[in-house]
Amino acid sequence: PSARTFYAEVGGAPTFRALVAHFYAGVRADPVLAPLYPQDDWDGAEERLRRFLEQYWGGPTTYSQERGHPRLRMRHAPFAIGGRERDAWLRHMRAAVDSLQLTPEQDAALWGYLEMAARSMQNRWDEP
Ligand code: HEM
């Protein structure tokens, strides 16, 4: 049925949990990205991204209940995100998406969004 959400179609909560767990394992070990994140709240950061993505794709709206309107560009303003950070973020996310069992169509939909979103979060353009 057309009412079935992308969230449900790809497997719901366990799929999003696996996606962000894989992603954050990579980020935590990344010398470019790790210093940007709250070192004493990795679990919280993982939960915020997971809740946001679940909500975006039609799952529970817990993210906005807890955090309000996403306003993601504004929330990323404190972090210097240049091409290097954007590419590193996307590289870990690509590996995380690859770890899921998505159909090519699902993969293309998810990845297209993530690439667009990562480009829109970039806020520095003065790197070599
Ligand atoms: C939060 C970095 C792209 C979604 C954060 C935080 C950092 C960060 C350092 C703070 C962690 C926390 O305490 O929650 C980056 C970098 C990116 C990037 C370097 C590279 C382009 C994205 C993209 C999305 C996203 C593309 C969405 C698809 C979020 C969300 C939060 C967050 C939902 C939590 C916001 C909140 O409620 O406070 N990001 N991010 N980020 N990021 Fe990103």
Descriptive account of the structure:
- The protein has a single domain, classed as Globins (Globin-like).
- Helices cover 62% and strands 0% of the residues.
- It is mainly alpha-helical and 128 residues long.
- α2 (13-28) crosses α3 and α2 packs across α6 (83-98).
- It is built from 7 helices and no strands.
- The mean pLDDT is 96.
- The chain has helices spanning 6-9, 13-28, 42-56, 62-67, 72-76, 83-98, 104-121.
- The protein is globular and about 45 Å long.
- Protoporphyrin IX containing FE binds next to α3, α5, α6 and α7.
Ligand names: protoporphyrin IX containing FE
Mass-distribution shape: globular
Helix and strand run:
HHHHHHH
Q: Could you estimate the helical fraction of the residues in percent?
A: 55-70%
Task: Give a quick summary of the entry.
62% of the residues lie in helices and 0% in strands.
Spell out the blueprint of helices and strands.
Blueprint: H1 6-9, H2 13-28, H3 42-56, H4 62-67, H5 72-76, H6 83-98, H7 104-121
The protein binds protoporphyrin IX containing FE.
The site of protoporphyrin IX containing FE has 21 residues, from α3, α5, α6 and α7.
